[in-house]
Design brief:
The protein is α+β, with helices and mostly antiparallel strands and 122 residues long. The chain has a domain of 82 residues. 46% of the residues lie in helices and 17% in strands. Helix 4 crosses helix 6. The longest helix has 12 residues. The radius of gyration is 15 Å and the shape is globular.
Length: 122
Amino acid sequence: MKWSKLKRTTEELLAEPLKNRVAYNLTRYGPGVSHVMSRGWITFDKQEIINCSSVKFDIECCNLIGDDHTDDKQVLEQLHKQGIFTREDFVGALEKYVTLKISDALKSVNPIIRALAMFDEI
């Protein structure tokens, strides 16, 4: 799904008191299609409350295992428990969230999906 449609769809699900207060954002820094220089974030009253930076993820992954990329589920889980996510994690959570029932989203193992559910208009 294109970002503009995903953003609109997820922001339409916000509880009425949160509309115009919560915003979902996505950017890529620099030229090309690099996944590294990119991030997604959520703001509440224009203050950033969640930052999913691919650069920060790669740095922390490198600090942890000496490499900036891994598919090791234990390493990924450890970084996620620390609140460290990639832009792809952010977009993937939004895409999954819009397909879930609110009750399923609230029980998700993905903390981003659970956070989104708390903003939902239920």
